[in-house]
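Apologies for my clumsy wording, but are you able to produce some protein sequence, whichever is easiest, and the tokens describing how it folds?
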Amino acid sequence: GRYFWRSYFNWFDALVVTVGLVELVWTNLSINMTVLRLLRIVKLGRSMRLMKLSASLDSLRSILRCISASFQTLFWSLFLLIVIQCIFAASIMYGIEDWMLDADNDLSQRRAVFRYYGTFTRTMLTMFEVLFANWVDR
């Protein structure tokens, strides 16, 4: 009994449980219930700490370590992809500039091309749509 109350986490758990019971009994509190729900998420995080102590979850821990180690590689891969797309977007945009400014070309065709490649932002969006196989007909 006495040793239970020496841990701050046990005090926090008691607070979260008490608040949950109060919410069940009396739902019209003037306290913002979203804050109280966030406290429950923190309590869930505490229970996740217990998973570290369990020896039977070595494979799960190994998988989570691999996933967390791959975030840096994922970041640099996406960064490199964006840089390459920026280079190609600028090249495409400036490559069609003369064709777009030529008054001899059909105006409806120039507008259609402008819709997809007229500005750097539109060119980047079109390239992302093509890259992720989400070519949409706007």
